[in-house]
Specification:
GO terms for molecular function: kinase activity. Helices cover 46% and strands 7% of the residues. The chain is built from 26 helices and 10 strands.
């Protein structure tokens, strides 16, 4: 058993105590320990800590000071016992007048510090008590609302060893000690018979049952009933607030006639073994002894379980363990990332940058194709967590390597990723990315050609106007000549969705000729979509045609005087493809300033990759005759964002 004690105390002890005390910890449930509790900060590292102080007082007529004895007993216990669910000591300072203990930051049990599902917290306390009973031959003695604390990560741990005794100590002797302790004076008074033959461990079991009742009463909102300073502690009255499946266990724990095997309870009781949070955390803590198939199965099921795990526990307890295992089982990284990214959505940006981003950055630079593919697929979820500096200074170069990858899947995902990257890189990098996308318009894989055309249309709001005029029309010209039907559709849809970015001159000189050229296409659907696109552009020119005004659209910048603004300040007037869509598989986003936008239905072509088309309907159909009216009567399917050439990979 001695392996669970430190042979030499590893806790620094001396006169230099580099902790700053900030504020006392107060709770409405009283103080049930001899130490005064403060929150502080490590001066050297700036780490939040908790500080426990005890000042020696006068002794009684018999030369005793019971509070001092309790304080010194706590010091002996907490400085030597090492366990994940026992409060960790950072620094100790002891003098002739006082004892000061600095520990990791912790908080009292309260409605705000307890998760809505406390099963994991109870599991941690059961585990710690079982450890004391079986490995250290110790009874804790203070399983109370202030003998258990909550750490920054939401985990529960034992914190006060003032009443800790050997297992062989009788309950009668331990209760006699408790009657002299602050907890008894504050109202926490265990109701066990003073049976001399009963082990002190039984008082711990009674405390576990009582704590369960107290916590669930607190979570139910009955705070006053939990205040044992004002009301007599009536555990049986609190028992009704606990879940029904715990009633038998609570009765056994609090019965003097039952000696409960705590490890068996943890392993077999449905309250613990059927709880998703408990199962996930206990498995994660045992990653180092699990086989690769077991870990693979765990991560295959974890994404579906995450919504049932409290956010704080997932972020602060589960995520750190997951990040560790990525480097042990590198082949499982793609499936691990499927759980990491959803969790990251709930953490603070600063925490993400400090704890998760270094791993993401390292993985982007890894040569493993499966890892690269997974990261690219997850970019819609990752992008909101990353800023311009992350992309432009760190991630952009590793990303664009995917354009030249021999794997068509990686090339395709790299193309789709540019929609999310373009608004967060500098202009030089934007130009480089656009040139690479232009090469993809002529890729050997037809679906990559289609997705490149769509991507280029979606990123127009973020590009410099001269770059758009130089590149985009040529991309559409190439796409309209592509034998693959989807490329022609994508080009026409892109023109219809983004013509609002072009001035009158460019609409007449470039866009109308491109759209009109499709009226001779061999496919009827392309011809019809071409006609819709022509009418949409003509509608935007109607003001110029009828009044002779040559002023370009207020929100357009191409083909005329260029506003001095960053690319992200360009706002489309006509229906554009939204580059800020939350997923690269969302719908086209059509916005229009003062004009109605509808969609017309075009039958899907027989090709496996064919998509429905879109167009912008003129505001006043009567100006264009009955042919237009007849054409605009057809409703239209929503246009899918990107084509997926690998549906089996979804």
């Amino acid at each position: 058993m001695f392996k669970y004690f430190a042979a030499k105390c590893p806790i620094p002890k001396g006169s230099v105590f580099s902790q700053s005390t900030e504020e006392p910890v107060e709770t409405q449930f009283g103080s049930i320990q001899s130490y005064k509790w403060y929150q502080g900060t490590s001066k050297s590292e700036g780490v939040p800590t908790s500080i426990f102080k005890y000042s020696y007082g006068a002794k009684d007529n018999h030369g005793c000071n019971l509070d001092q004895e309790f304080a010194e007993r706590h010091l002996r216990g907490i400085r030597l016992l090492l366990h994940p669910n026992i409060l960790k000591v950072i620094k100790i300072k002891q003098s002739n007048t006082s004892i000061t203990i600095a520990t990791e930051r912790c908080y009292p049990l309260s409605a705000s510090s307890i998760s809505f599902d406390p099963a994991l917290g109870f599991y941690q306390i059961f585990s710690a008590i079982h450890f004391l009973h079986t490995k250290c031959n110790k009874a804790y003695g203070l399983i109370t609302p202030l003998g258990v604390v909550v750490r920054d990560d939401g985990s529960w741990c034992l914190s006060s060893f003032e009443c800790s005794v050997d297992n062989e100590t009788s309950v009668q002797r331990l209760i006699a000690d408790l009657k002299q302790h602050a907890s008894w004076r504050e109202g926490w008074r265990p109701s066990l018979p003073s049976n001399a033959a009963m082990s002190a461990r039984k008082l711990d079991q009674w405390g576990l049952g009582a704590l369960m009742c107290w916590v669930y009463t607190l979570l139910s909102g009955n705070v006053e009933r939990c205040n044992f300073r004002k009301q007599e502690l009536d555990i049986q009255a609190l028992r009704r607030y606990a879940p029904t499946n715990l009633h038998v266990l609570i009765d056994q724990l609090m019965s003097p006639d039952h000696d409960v095997n705590l490890q068996e309870v943890l392993d077999t009781h449905p309250y613990f073994c059927s709880n998703v949070t408990v199962s996930a955390i206990t498995f994660a803590l045992a990653f180092h002894i699990k086989t690769e198939p077991q870990i693979r199965e765990f991560f295959a099921n974890l994404p579906a379980s995450l919504p049932r795990i409290p956010i704080e526990i997932a972020c602060k307890q589960l995520l750190p363990e997951i990040l560790k295992v990525m480097y042990i089982h590198k082949s499982l990284v793609p499936s691990i990332l499927e759980s990491v990214v959803p969790i990251c959505k709930s953490i603070l940006v600063d925490e993400f940058k400090a704890k998760v981003y270094p791993h993401i950055s390292s993985l982007f630079k890894d040569n493993d194709r499966s890892i690269r593919f997974s990261l690219l697929k997850l970019m819609p979820e990752l992008e909101p967590l990353l800023d311009e500096r992350d992309f432009s200074e760190d991630l952009f170069e590793p990303m664009i390597v995917g354009f030249s990858d021999s794997s068509s899947q990686i090339r395709d995902e790299t193309v789709k990723t540019m929609v999310h990257v373009m608004k967060k890189i500098n202009r030089r990098q934007q130009q480089s990315a656009v040139m690479l996308l232009c090469k993809c318009v002529e890729d050997i894989e037809p679906t990559i050609r289609v997705n490149s055309i769509i991507c280029l249309a979606k990123i127009i709001p973020y590009l410099q106007n001269d770059l758009v005029l130089k590149v985009i029309p040529q991309v559409w010209r190439t796409g309209l000549q592509d034998p693959f039907l989807k490329s022609r559709f994508a080009s026409l849809e892109s023109i219809a969705a983004t013509y609002g970015f072009f001035g009158i001159e460019k609409k007449v000189e470039i866009l109308l000729p491109l759209a009109c050229s499709t009226l001779l296409d061999g496919d009827q659907q392309v011809r019809k979509l071409g006609m819709d696109t022509v009418y949409a552009i003509l509608e935007s020119l109607k003001g110029h045609v009828l009044t002779g005004e040559s002023k370009q659209d207020a929100t357009s910048w191409a083909g005329g005087a260029q506003p001095q603004s960053t690319p992200t300040q360009n706002t489309p007037k006509q229906g554009i493809i939204s580059p800020r869509s939350s997923s690269p598989r969302t719908e086209w986003s059509d916005t229009d300033a003062g004009k109605s936008i509808t969609r017309a239905k075009i039958p899907s072509p027989p090709d496996a990759w064919a998509a429905s088309a879109t167009h912008v309907q003129p505001q006043n159909n009567s100006a264009w005759g009955t042919t237009t009216n007849d054409m605009m009567k057809d409703p239209m399917h929503e246009l899918q964002d990107f084509f997926d050439p690998f549906p089996a990979k979804k």
